[in-house]
């Protein structure tokens, strides 16, 4: 199993929207590195859901239910999407400030490549963040 973090602006598509819809197509990614990460996602991989810009916090865990397929928002075949389903909401959102203060997370991609919208996590990073949110 692989672990990931995806970022979204809560004003565009919040965790509550994913919970309401029960699944979403994670599309519209137009960065090659983020696209490559989408292509590596496998069914049942776990994904931390991060509200960017206004909230800057991890708010839940989603799961990949469909691996990479042609992004339906473009005819350009180089772009892909995946399907995510909600798994569980965090009891307490984990803020960017908390992540920055956690010594064991100093190498996390969220801090090193802050503009990347889809990024891998190590199993240890995932477990630390999960425990922080419970």
Automatic annotation (TrEMBL):
Chain ranges of the EVE domain: 2-132
Q: What is this protein called?
A: Ubiquinol-cytochrome C reductase
Q: Which Pfam families match?
A: EVE
Query: Would you indicate the residue range of the signal peptide?
Result: none
The cross-references to SUPFAM superfamilies, in alphabetical order and at most eight, read: PUA domain-like (SSF88697)
Q: Which residues form a coiled coil?
A: none
